């Protein structure tokens, strides 16, 4: 296992050769916060990405996927909040191109090296004049400053209540390498690829195809194991830039170097994924489902995701109710193959743990003790199905009154 050091103050420009700028362009019409961000690498980077599997794909997703999956190179990304630029037809795609052209022109880059990302209300056209002017202005403000990077993590938020950012440091071939990352996501989180918007900026030298394969494997066990509300967004995007400025020998295949980089990306992705779940719209606690003893990983994954996506289970977690029947029920309808008569279920938290089910039957547990264990802001359902070595962890949150309120008023 490589040593992956999580930096005390993590920010998206922590790796060599990255700069950022934010501003208010007026895209969020009723807000006063900054709503545009530009991330830039000093040099052209190899890039990997994963995108929503929703058939209704936002314009920036369509354009970015074409560039990332075919050209595999990028140097900048322009991000806006307030308008998703989804279900906007040709004008939406044209807006992406005009944004990239404006930023590229100001930075001296080919427009195909500039990606775009959007988040916000679906079905509304971007104000092209504002976003083009914003892209040009941002290009003149880019800096590697930590405070500016933190502002970027705030500027990409929509219904999020907290910035989500991290940086890690590690060695590959004697060279010090870093990844700086940020993401946003709080609602419409049930990914089949990644999260709402996520950006990992690394100074590692790695082949783009190798990075793409690795990223997909990491996403499968991190971002793809998160659910807030069961809704997969039209805009889900995770981008991994690798600009090579750490000057390690370029990673071109399997080996210790790739293992180390994979571990570092996993640390970053898992941190961000858990914080998305913890900051779920209206949430009061992070709810983790850990399944062990399954016949294989896929079985464990299916069971774990069924538990954290069950509305009844999520409501019970909100109410601090040790209603193990809801957990067991979700496992039963998941479609996964397991033996209920062998299954044990615990609830765990910083307050301790309590066994609720043993070999498919309720234990004589203390309701008072269960309430104590379910009261902290992070709780875990630990399920052992005792049929093999498969294990998986999924992250979600409780379902609260505030979730309904936030989404009832979202457009206003």
Structure characteristics:
single chain, 412 residues, alpha+beta, 11 helices, 27% strand
Describe the protein.
With 412 residues, this protein is an alpha+beta fold. Helices cover 33% and strands 27% of the residues. The protein contains eleven helices and 15 strands. The protein has helices at 59-70, 89-107, 128-139, 146-155, 208-221, 256-278, 297-309, 311-318, 324-333, 367-373, 401-408, and strands at 5-6, 18-23, 36-51, 73-83, 114-121, 164-172, 175-184, 197-202, 237-242, 286-294, 344-349, 352-358, 361-362, 378-384, 390-397. The strands form two sheets. Strands 1, 2, 3, 4, 5, 6, 7, 8 and 9 form a nine-stranded mixed β-sheet that branches. The longest helix has 23 residues, at 256-278. It is globular and about 70 Å long. The N and C termini lie far apart (49 Å).
